[in-house]
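Hi, does anyone understand the following?
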Amino acid sequence: MNIPDVVNSTDSFLIGSSNLDESYLNATLFQDYDNSSSSFMNNSWNISQEQGKVYSQLSLVYQVIPKVLAILGTVGNVLTFIVFLWSKSLRKTALAQFLLALAVTDTLLLWLHLLYTLTASGDLEIRSAVACKVLVWLTDTVTYVSSWLIVTVTFNRFIVIVLPLRATRWCQKRNARIAIFVIVSVFSLVSIYNFWAWDDVFVSKKYYMCKMTRKELIRPRIIMVIVLFSLLPSLTLFTMNGIIMKNLSEALSKQAVYRASFNKQKVKGVQRQLDILLLTLSFSFLILTLPLTLVDIVIFSMYDDTSVLPRDDIFVRLYMSREILNIFSLTNNCLIFPLYCVSGRKFRGELKSVFCRIKLRLEQNVERDPPPDAL
């Protein structure tokens, strides 16, 4: 596949936090360097042969790491889901409802990104217009929901620490489920424009691409993804975490018990572990996603015409930087399980209990169905 064979635009299928087009670069720039001469690279793109080699090596990283993250993240998220479902003490809280939903959306996002990687590299094609529309709509929805679930998790802890007298009424399991339903519904409606803005397009002799056919929506879409996925959630998290840390600092300086009035039997150490866990989850989101968003803003401000992909050296450097940052952003969807294992002693105990139950059931099945030699 050569670059002239692929439509030169920034409106191809996007995935996760990828706000600009990636498919044609990953499907052509890297692949063609391996299959063609360096002169092709130099003539088509204003980059050196050494840069072409670097980009070719980065393409391997880009194709391998999402697969590894999808597997590891899925295992961790599934274990988190099982632990919360099996543990009555963990799943009865409002916070558990948000973390269960976050485990589901993170897993979906990892596999949607992997699906995109396969389509961008040409290993998988989308030949159905309906599949194209549904895939982009689902990707946008899950991306937004994943970000705002982290906001709701932080808001839940914000209420407990800053407004403890209202925590009993607000931080309930039922209210958490209503909040999750509202978030999913709102962003499903926000992303519904994808059903008439995208289509499956035949762009070469043997290549199909999911593309935005309404080019006037390209720039508004980029702005919307940047704002709803990163900027607005980040600003909200910065504000709430700042207030939370201020209140915790004042409480510690006065040697006061954390004011979780809805459950006075909790030990201070357990509360401190939970606070550290949720603060780490929030700040990891900020650290892993904001740099990608800032690079997108730079690209967006430097290149006014986003319907035609530039080929200058500055853009290629910026683009490759954001591809690396995109991988870091993807790791944000794998963090719940390791964070809980590190900071949650109760979670580790419940996880051990889950494995013990599985082992016990396996032993019971073996005793129930002995091997033929034992008969």
